[in-house]
Amino acid sequence: MSARGTWRPVPDRTFPVWAPDAESVLVDVAGAGRHPLEKGDDGWWRLPAPLDRGGDGAPLDYGFVVDGAGPHPDPRSRRQPDGVHALSREWDPSAFRWTDGGWRPGTLTGRVIYELHLGTFTPEGTLDAAAGRLDHLAELGVEAVELLPVNAFNGPHGWGYDGVLWFAVHEPYGGPDAYQRFVDACHGRGIAVIQDVVYNHLGPSGNYLPVFGPYLSEGRNTWGSSVNLDGPRSDEVRRLILDNAAFWLRDMHVDGLRLDAVHALRDSSAEHILEALAREAAALRDTTGRPATLIAESDLNDPRLIRDRRRHGYGLDAQWDDDVHHAVHVNLTGETSGYYADFAGPEALIKTFERGFFHDGTWSSFRERHHGRPLDADIPHSRLVAFSQDHDQVGNRAIGDRLTATLDEGRLAVAAALILLGPFTPMLFMGEEWGATTPWPFFSSHPEPDLAEATRTGRIAEFARMGWDPAVVPDPQDPATFESAKLDWTEPAEPSHARLLAWYRRLIEVRRALPADARAKDVTCADGVFGFTRAGLRVEAALSGHDLPHPADGTVTEAVFDDAVRVVRITR
Predict the structure, then answer these.
(1) Which one, out of 207, 288, 434, 526, has a CA that is 20 to 30 A from the CA of 501?
(2) 230, 260, 267, 491: which one is catalytic?
(3) Which of 251, 297, 432, 558 is catalytic?
(4) Rounded Cα–Cα distance for residues 557 and 541 (Å)
(5) CA angle, 529 as apex, 525 and 534 as ends, to 5°?
(6) Is 430 exposed, middle or buried (0-12, 13-18, 19+ CB in 10 A)?
C-alpha cells in the first residue's frame, strides 16, 4: 500500500525522509551524532548505508535537521516518548505477538458502536485502563468501540483533534505498545475497533510538516491550513495519508477508520482522496481477510460518499447522519436554536426515519441556502451512523451538558429506543447507557499562553450563533474542566442508572434479532406518539416520555419501559 517503498514496517536505519526543497538534511541520532543524508531524484533523503551503531539493539532516538534547523521529529514517527517537539523513537509494530488470528468480524455497518475518549473513559485515562472496562462493554452488547483521535498532540490532555504526528500514539495514553494490547483485548472479547483519524488539518503546536515539504496548501478550513491534496507535489502528501490508513488497519489491526470532517478535504483530483482511501482499504480487505470499514463524518448530506465506486461514488462504507441526531434532539428537548431550528416538529423525525436525510436539497435556515441531496434508493440506511449523543453534540454545547441534564428517565429511554432500534447503524456515547450525569465539556492543555487564550476566546465566539450564554462556558484550559469530564463508574450501580443500563442491554438484544438492513416502515406520529415498524417489530414511543396508550389485547410485547416506550411483535 505504498509507492516507491516509502512506507517502512520496521525501523529503517537509512532514515528516509521526504524534503524536496531542502538544500541539506542531517539525521541527529541521540548518542551517535549527526549524519548527512543524500538526496534522491524523488525528493527523498536517506543515508547511503544503514547506520551501524552496534550495541544492544535498543531503539534509537532521532530527528532531522533541515537546512540547519532542528532537529525535528520524523513526519512518519511511530513514537514520541517526550512529546511532539522532541526526538522520535524507533518502534517496530511487528514485535507484538497478536492473539487475534481468527478474528473476522465482517463489515461494521449495522453494528452497535460505542464512542469513547480514552482520557476521560476511566479515572486513569489510559489504554490499559480502558481495556479493564471491556467486560462492561461486552455485557452491554457493544460490537465496536470508536476511539477519538489518539495520535500525538502537545499537552497532556485534549480531545485529540489537535494532533500533529499521525502515526504516533499519544504517550500519556500508553503509547503504541498499549494501543496494540488494547486492540488485541477488544478482539478477544468480540469487539471491533474503529479509530478516528484527522486528515483535514493539523494541530497548532508541533506541526513541523511545512519544514519538510509542501504538505499544506494556501487554503484554510475551520481549523487551520488545509492539507495539500491536489496542488503541486501533492502525490507524496496523499501517500502519507494512505500509508497512515494502512498503518492503523494493517499494523495495529484496527477494523475501521472514522474519517473526521471529510467536507473539509479540499481535493479537485480526478481520484478524490476519499476514493483513493476506499480503493486501498478494499485491497487490504482482499489481502488480509480482515475488515477495513471506512466511515465518514460529513456535513454534506451527499450520497456520493457511500455510493459504489463503479457508479462514480467514493465507495466509503458509511457516513455519520447528523440529521437523525437533530430530529431526535429537538423532538425530545424542544430546543430549536441555531441549526436545530429546521428540525422542529415530528415531521423532521418522520422524514429522517423514512428517507435517511432531512436536508436532501431542502432549505437550511442555519446555512441560509439549500442543502444536501436525496439518498440513493438502493443504499440501505444501515450505512448511516445515527446517535442521540456524541462528542461533538455534547462537547460543543456551552457547558458540555448531556441529555441527562435536560430529559427525564422516560425520554432518555425513548432516545435509546429510537437510535438502537431504528434503521441506522447506532452509535452510543460513553456513559450514555447508564445516563451518566458527568458533563463532557471541551477541554485542552495547550502549554503556550497565546494559544491557550486563543482557545478560550474562540470557544466563546463559537457559541454566539447558538444563543448560549458565554458567561457559563467552562475554561477549557482549567484542569478542573478536564477532570469534570471523567466518567463516574460508581453511577451504574445506583438504582436509576442501573435501570436505564438494563434497558439499553435489552434494546441491543432485541436489535440483534433484526436484519441490519431492514428499513423503517409505517413511520407515524400521532398524539405525541412516534412509531415505526422494522422486520415484524413495532416501536411506539411517547415523545413526552410518558402517557403511552395501553396496547391492544393479545399484543406480544418484546420490550417496555414504563409508559414511555413499547416494542411489540406484529402477529398478523
Answers:
(1) 526
(2) 260
(3) 297
(4) 13
(5) 70
(6) buried
Any known ligand binding at 324?
A: yes
pLDDT at 57 over 80: no
Say if residue 325 carries a ligand binding annotation.
yes
How many of the other CB atoms lie within 10 Å of CB of 459? Answer: 19
3-state secondary structure of 473: coil
Q: What are phi and psi of 296, to 5 degrees?
A: -95, 135
pLDDT at 500 over 80: yes
Confidence of residue 148 (pLDDT cuts 50, 70, 90): very high
Is residue 228 marked as binding? no
Task: Identify the CA nearest to 75 among candidates 184, 215, 175.
Answer: 215
pLDDT digits (tens, 9 = 90+) for 261-277: 999 999 999 999 999 99
Residue 396 labelled as part of a binding site: yes
Model confidence at 310: pLDDT above 90: yes
Task: Establish whether 65 is an annotated binding residue.
Answer: no
- Residue 5: the pLDDT is 40
The DSSP 8-state label assigned to residue 249 in this structure reads: I
* DSSP element (H, E) containing 259: strand 256-259
Instruction: For residue 551, name the pLDDT band (cuts at 50, 70, 90).
Output: confident
Q: For residues 540 and 527, what is the distance between their CA atoms, to the nearest angstrom?
A: 12
Going by pLDDT thresholds of 50, 70 and 90, the confidence category of residue 116 is: very high
Per-residue pLDDT tens over the stretch 352-403: 999 999 999 999 999 999 999 999 999 999 999 999 999 999 999 989 999 9
Say how many CA atoms lie within 13 Å of 399 toward its Cβ: 13
Q: Is the peptide bond before 48 cis (omega within 30 degrees of 0)?
A: no
Pairing of strands 318-320, 384-386: parallel
Nearest to 314 by CA among 367, 370, 376, 359: 376
Cα separation, 572 vs 569, whole angstroms: 9
State the Cα angle at 555 between 552 and 560, rounded to 5°.
Answer: 100
Q: Is 394 annotated as a binding residue?
A: yes
Residue boundaries of the structural domains of the chain: 516-569
Q: Check the annotation: does 262 bind a ligand.
A: yes
CATH placement of domain 516-569: 2.60.40
Is 41 annotated as contributing to ligand binding?
no
pTM surpassing 0.85?
yes
The question of whether 408 is a catalytic residue gets the answer: no
Mean pLDDT of 283-307: 94
Per-residue confidence (pLDDT) for residue 3, from 0 to 100: 38
Placement of cell 477488544 in the chain: 186
φ, ψ of residue 429 to 5 degrees: the values are: -100, 135
550 in a known ligand binding site: no
**Is residue 297 among the annotated active site residues?**
yes
The HSE-up count of residue 504 (CA atoms within 13 Å, CB side) is 32
To the nearest whole number, what is the mean pLDDT of the chain? 94
